[in-house]
Structure formats: structure tokens, C-alpha cells
Amino acid sequence: MDDNKERLQKVLAQAGIASRRKSEELILEGRVKVNGKVVDTLGFKVSKKDIIEFDGKPISRQLLVYYVINKPLGYIANENEKSNGRTVMDLLTIEDKETRIFSIGMMDSDTSGAVILTNDGNLAYKLNLSKKEFEKEYQARIDGIISQNEILRLIKGIELDNKKYKLSNIDVSNIDKKNNSCLINFKVFDSKLKTIKKIFEELGHPIKKLKRISFAGIDCIGLSVGSYRPLKPHEIKKLYSL
């Protein structure tokens, strides 16, 4: 009976080695051993008594941590932590870097704001690969001053690649007639930043500056740029309920 056993990639994710998807790649690359033997096939299950090694070093079950960071411009959030430029990992303390934290989803260097960070590979797997779209709130500085009719178009939906995208809770402020620009806050159910940019391009108001205020209800309000805070228990519970 293996009722108390778990898949190897799940255990690696729980140990903070990588997300579950990335852990599967590490297994296939032959970088993981169980009780001294290389396991390079998926589906292998282990118990708490098994000794698991990654790159020759035993893994340890560590305390799971969850943060939200107010990502600055010029940094990227990359779930695989591979980049030739600066990433949000460069903003973490030495202690937090040692816990093998990675980001939920991705964010390019030209967008700032809320990014979830964790060493919980199972949660990362759930949110990164889920087909469900989570509500996100953004603030954008756009080119031109948006009209009421254009706002109605956003509410009814902009069609891109045979799919309609709708914005909600739209609020326009800081109208700059001199520079022909304004700020617009909105909520949207879509995980891809490039789609949001295409929506405003289609509307004739390209985005000049974009900030994510919140991700699935987790916001970075009150956080200075580049700083981060631990998630509260109810916030972690909320992410798991999505």
C-alpha cells in the first residue's frame, strides 16, 4: 500500500526546490536521487522515510513562505528565475533567497506592482497552470484622453483573436490635457499582460505605464517600491481557494 506516499515532483515542490512543473524537468534530467539511485521517470512515489537528493545534496522539508512584493520598473518576475537582467529575486534578503523563492506568473520589466512570491511549489503549480483566470486590478497611464463611449466599449468587451475581453470597475483620473494623457484604473480577468496592452492599442490609447495594484485580491498598497511583506493567513487561504 502506498497511501502515505506522494509523487516525487510534489515533494520537491514542497521542499522549495522548484515549482512542480520545473521539478518534473529536473527529474527527467536525472538530477534527483532517491535512496542513492537516480530517478529519471515521472510518477515515482516516495515516503517520508526516503532520502531524496537534488544535485547530490539531500533536500530538507522547509517552512513554506508567501510574500507580495511591489515590483519596480526595470526588474522582471520570472517563475523559472532565469534572466540576464535584474529579477525580483535580487530584491530579497539573503535569508529569503536561501528558501528558493520563486514568483507566481511572470511580469516584464516595463510593468510594476504586485507579484506573489513563494517557495510553495504546489501553489505555484496550481496558479501558474490553472485554466481559471483570476481577477487583477491595474492602473495605466495611457496615451490620449479616453471618452465615455470608449469606456463603454471596454465594459462591453474588446475582441482580440476571436475572444472578447471585458474590463470592469473603470475609473479615469489625473487627466493631463497638456500632454494628452490620463490615468485609468480597471479590473480584468486575464493572466497575460500583453493582452491588456493589446486591448488599449486596439482602442487607440496605447499604454505608457502599467502597474498591477492587486493579483487575485492580494494587493501591494502601502508597500514602498521594491519592498515586500508576508501574506496574511486569510490571503494564503484565499489563493488556495481559487
For this structure, what is the CATH class of the largest domain?
Answer: Alpha Beta
Instruction: Quickly give the structural class.
Output: alpha+beta
Strand content: 25-35%
Radius of gyration: 21 Å
Helical stretch tally: 7
How many structural domains does the protein architecture include?
A: 3
> Any guess at the CATH architecture of the largest domain?
2-Layer Sandwich
Give a short account of the largest sheet. 9 strands, mixed
Question: Can you write the helix and strand succession as a string?
Answer: EHHEEEEEEHEEHEHEEEEHEEEH
What does this structure look like?
With 242 residues, this protein is of the alpha+beta class. It folds into three domains: 6-58, RNA-binding S4 domain (Structural Genomics Hypothetical 15.5 Kd Protein In mrcA-pckA Intergenic Region, Chain A, Roll); 66-131 and 218-241, 2-Layer Sandwich (Alpha-Beta Plaits); 135-215, Alpha-Beta Plaits (2-Layer Sandwich). It contains seven helices and 17 strands. The strands form four sheets. Strands 7, 8, 9, 10, 13, 14, 15, 16 and 17 form a nine-stranded mixed β-sheet that branches. The chain has a four-stranded antiparallel β-sheet with strand order 3-2-5-6, with no helix packed on it. A two-stranded antiparallel sheet has the order 1-4. The longest helix is centred in the C-terminal third of the chain and has 11 residues, at 193-203. The chain is elongated. The two termini are 32 Å apart. The relative contact order is 0.16.
